[in-house]
């Protein structure tokens, strides 16, 4: 993930100053433990100023409105208590080449600031600190004790101190190429490392882009550079400093991230705030997506292994109970042939009633024939009673396994992050598992109505132009089937295989062609646990014939009046390449 460096921070806060100051503070909302949003209102617009102290994504920019869910963090409430109704009158850098901004708040523009909000964008040491006018710390996103840092503790009630100054030389636009070159090449080494160690205000991403724009290799030794190479690189250096001095920034997307200087740009953008908001929102969502997917996948794997072991034990006990009739038959034979028993016998061989085949019966020599028969009857009855007790337990375990396999299939289908909907689908799965008590709740779990599913289904268009809706998880499957489905639609699902519910939306009187049905069956097979198979049986019926058993877990449904189609999941890749996705 590309970090916000001095250049990006300078570009974004100057753009904010030009378009958002002065602004009244209306609200403060904390999105998570690393991210607050301050609601601002100017004479022309309203918006949210995002401030993050995330170790990899610390930043400040105008972002999206926060979600409609409760804010349970004390830090944001403390800031709101102090700043509500005040005006953000200025944003300034506390010192040249430092990545620390001073946001100043007063009753109205032109007055002295009452509070300062210091935003320190410094990687893993990033922080947000609110102080009074006398620089006394009121609250901080991250308190730093003396045990954590003797150099610079950050504690409520203590005076605010700036971070230790950098020791590198400060870049200077008036510095000559010769002097600049001497500093960079003083200790030979990789060009990227030499630049970073010689001057402050640089970042690895900026240096790499600068060097590549000069048609050089960042890992190239300074000893191999020609006079022409040094001249080309110095021109890029001057471009950078001029952009900072004149605020001539050119934001845009690059192959690996973004730029604010126009270097290696593949797509320009007009608004730097939107660029930063999109980049870091997507990067953090992808990071959270991968972590959450790994967590859920591992949890389900462990649960299914334990349940499968339990199911195997129950199955073994049922197999043993199958011998109940055999023990009863042996007891009947023994009672019918009491005269064949002799004292001290350990085994007796008698002819089967129906086949006449010899049957060997183990005996206890200290007991007589009747007592041995009674023991066999007792053993038979015990095994029969065990079957009656074990069968419902095995049925419950198998139902639980089927449910978790359904959840596992939904996670398997969401294998990569593409949009916010992918992350939202995983969060819904996590909330479902918490609701079903397979996961423990945590302070970061969404507190909205856990019974309400999102409607960001997978959506496709069939060859005949009909819309196709596919649930991303069990909660969406239930919503799709039992609330979203219309009277004229068709419902599809892989037969007796965990997978998504699929709905083909039809208008009254519309009749889908065979190609439409095959297309839908292919997608039902693709969004099932049998995605890798060549052919998958898929059931098709009307939604009114789909029922949810009483007390069944999310995503579980039974159906009737179905017909079978054979879906070919491998053909879905062809459909996707043909661009038949409406929105995803």
Automatic annotation (TrEMBL):
Keywords: Coiled coil, Protein biosynthesis, RNA-binding, rRNA-binding, tRNA-binding. InterPro entries: NFACT_RNA-bd, RQC_Subunit_NEMF, RqcH_bacterial. It holds the Pfam family NFACT_N. Residues 457-550 form the NFACT RNA-binding domain. Residues 286-324 form a coiled coil. Associates with stalled 50S ribosomal subunits. Binds to RqcP. Belongs to the NEMF family. Key component of the ribosome quality control system (RQC), a ribosome-associated complex that mediates the extraction of incompletely synthesized nascent chains from stalled ribosomes and their subsequent degradation. RqcH recruits Ala-charged tRNA, and with RqcP directs the elongation of stalled nascent chains on 50S ribosomal subunits, leading to non-templated C-terminal alanine extensions (Ala tail). The Ala tail promotes nascent chain degradation. May add between 1 and at least 8 Ala residues. Binds to stalled 50S ribosomal subunits. This is Rqc2 homolog RqcH.
